[in-house]
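Thread: Newbie trying to understand structure tokens

Hi all, I'm a second-year student working on a class project, and my supervisor (Dr. K.) asked me to get a predicted structure for one chain before our next meeting. I've only ever worked with sequences, so writing a 3D structure as a token string is new to me. If someone could post the tokens and maybe explain what I'm looking at, I'd be very grateful. Here's the chain:
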Amino acid sequence: MDHGIEPPRERERNGKPGEGTLLLKAYHSGGNIVVEISDDGRGLDRNKIIEKAISKEWIQPGQNMSDTEIINLIFQPGFSTADKVTDISGRGVGLDVVRKAVETLRVALMFPQSLARGALFSVRLPLTMAITDGMLVKVGHQRYILPTVNIDMSFAPMEKYCPRSSGGARSWFFNGKVLPIFRLHRLFNIKDAVEDPTRGLLIIIGEGNQRCALLVDELVGQQQVVAKPLGDGIGKVQGIAGGAILGDGRVGLILDPQGIALLARQTSDSGIPREVVC
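---
Reply by user tm_fold:
Sure, no problem. This is what the structure looks like when written as tokens:
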């Protein structure tokens, strides 16, 4: 970390702690591996980027550009907003080299984003072959894999904690919040599955601030699987992140928690998925 993080006194004047923070996150989302690098430094200075680009004659003064186009200028070879060259920054080769390396991974994408109190870079890579820690669950005669990183907890619900609404739907109270219960057998049209939540298991899953409960028949066990895409013949299926060959040779589909929540909510114009909530 060099010129992107302000000196302690400058940070304190802006209401930040004197010590800067660099955060690295990696997770699965929508059939991709997402790597996020963020900091709480100065962020991307739009005006300074424009000034540097004009001085290098990459753009013309007064040229109309969107914020995205302006931010993407930082990937140009030789571009830097550093006031001086040091041993580790200021030469304008860092982000240019990183982007070229990312682009060699074919459809990998890199998104810079300026924040009010720092900057965020997000690299989204295709899930071609990765080891996934998953929980194998059974729904009717089907088995699915839930990434353990998205699971908060699982339990057998009691009737008194899973009340019915006036319309017959059910919700579960979790940490003072009401969570919808999504029935996987309705989402994927599976027969012979458990329909009463008190006779099955609820799994609290989520991504970011979004949480919901999935109704499954039972937990088969936890295992590591090699995740693979479904292939061009099947294409992208909402709610499914990929597939894996299980120990008995059968294929288990890897569930995408974010995609499942979106799929369930799309079944209701009111935003409450009546057909997929207990």
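A couple of things are worth pointing out once you decode it. The chain is about 15% helix and 35% strand. Confidence is low (pLDDT under 50) at residues 268-278. Feel free to ask follow-ups in this thread.
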